[in-house]
Amino acid sequence: MPKITLEDAFIVIRDLGAIFHLLALVMPVPALATIYFERNLPINTIIWDTFTMLVPAIIFYLLYLFCSELKIQHSAQTSHAMVAVATAWLIVALVCATPFILRGQLNPIDAFFESMSGWATNGFTIIPDIEGFPKDLLLFRSWMQFVGGVGFIGLALITIEGNLPALEYYLSGVGGQKITPSVHGTVRVMWRIFLLYALAGIVMLYIAGMPIFDAVCISFSAISTGGFTPHAANIAYYGSHAIEAVLILMMTMGAISFFVHYQLFQGRWKELFRNLEFKYYIILVSCGWLLITLFLIEWDTATPQTITTTAWEALFHVVSASTTTGFRISDISRWSEPAKSVLMFLMYVGGAYGSSAGGIRLLRFAVVTAALLYTLRRLMYPKSAVIALKAGGRVFTEDEAFFALTLCCAYVIIAFLGAVGLSLAGFASGDSLSISLASLGEVGLQQVPTSDWLAMSDWAKMLITLLMWVGRIEIFPLLAIARIVIRRRI
After folding, report:
1. CA 110, CA 461: separation in Å to the nearest integer?
2. Distance between CA 316 and CA 417 in Å, rounded?
3. Which of 159, 340, 374, 421 could, after both became Cys, cross-link 389 (CB 3.0–4.6 A)?
4. Residues with Cβ < 8 Å from 248, sequence gap 6 or more?
């Protein structure tokens, strides 16, 4: 790794300035909810609570002013983008923990946990009484997920003139689309598209019978595959198949690549069914749905129900896990171990690249699967045979396959280390692995009893927060930063 100079640090700080500028513009929005919900309270309470909601925007603006003082003309490289992305997500989560602390609702550790869960679009929560929590803070949580999920860092990076390497790192992956200057406009269109999706989700959920406030919060969380809800019972609170059907659609839309959405809005509907990741998504959801339905019918005798009800419950949670959203309509901690194992696998794979979903991503899973088949063919055929590494009709290079396989292995190793840490914190071994995978994959699908979850130690909370951060930045930026620190090349 080349030596990191002071100039490199200045480039990263400059790029962070663009991110902070964007956040200073969008984060005052929840303060409007504070004014509305507290309109009947004493004026001093309204002023203070509104101020606490504006604190993150004020801090972001001050950070932007500081960063903008650096007059660095050099263009950013991929390494700068990795460090900027990793640093930004950490700083943003810390800053957005302040409203919870200033309002006296959460202690610093819990507030940081909740904030990171929001920005990482995870959906884990440690609020013991969500129904009694201030509504403006509940909306603030969902707004964090929406902004973080759609990709505030991607939008900020493209505002940096000439920063194509950074944009390429953030928006492209193994076999990803070729990045060109026109992507600048494409991502702006994506924000408009997802705001339209959120509005459509609010309308559909309201028509399906959901209260308007809940519809706003859950629509923001669903389209960003976040998973926050304003009720402790999650989506089970509503007991409505119509609402659940709307959410299945929204979760799926949130887990589809931004590029596919762009093509759909250009009228190219066939691209959806030609898309390699969408094909894999349908296959995995179908297989997972069938397996979990069978497992629940065979082993889940504690809560007997009809086959139709069981199949619907299985479908909802399979989509929730595959899209890494984390909504739930029943207590899955009571499911059989085989059913939970299928959910863990789906959480590991995750959604499409270029979406707000977590996991290793469907594209990488497709490439690794193709690489395994490619290796088998190489063993079976003569060395002189010409064999292509193909997935979905597309040829991938060995370097692309190696990159995908490396990340998948690193993902498993970090998930295992996280599980060991959680075991030391008091969780059972099976629960530890499930929580570790869910944290790393940005899936707030809680597979342990609520009483055990809320009683976890501060050490466990900080470890889960760390895993959520690592999962959101996709591991390699963390490894790059760790190597820099270890070699003391700053």
Report:
1. 8
2. 30
3. 374
4. 315, 316, 319
Reported confidence tier of residue 9, pLDDT bands at 50, 70, 90: low
**pLDDT greater than 50 at residue 473:** yes
Nearest by Cα to 346 from 417, 397, 297, 283: 283
CB contact set of 394 (below 8 Å; sequence gap of 6+): 175, 276
The Cα 304–Cα 301 span in angstroms is 5
User: CB under 8 Å to 263, separation ≥6 — which residues?
Assistant: 271, 272
**318, amino acid identity:** V
Mean pLDDT of the chain: 84
Q: Which residues of 444-476 are buried (b: 16+ CB within 10 A; e: fewer)?
A: bbbbbeeeebeebeeebbebbbbbbbbbbbbbb
Q: How far apart are CA 109 and CA 474, in angstroms?
A: 23
Residue 488 pLDDT: 53
Using a 10 angstrom Cβ sphere, with 0-12 exposed, 13-18 middle and 19 or more buried, the burial of residue 92 is: buried
For 133-151, what is the mean pLDDT?
91
Please give the Cα distance from 219 to 199 (Å, whole number). Answer: 8
Beta bridge partners of 390: 395
CA–CA dist 294, 281 (Å, integer): 20
pTM (whole model) above 0.85: yes
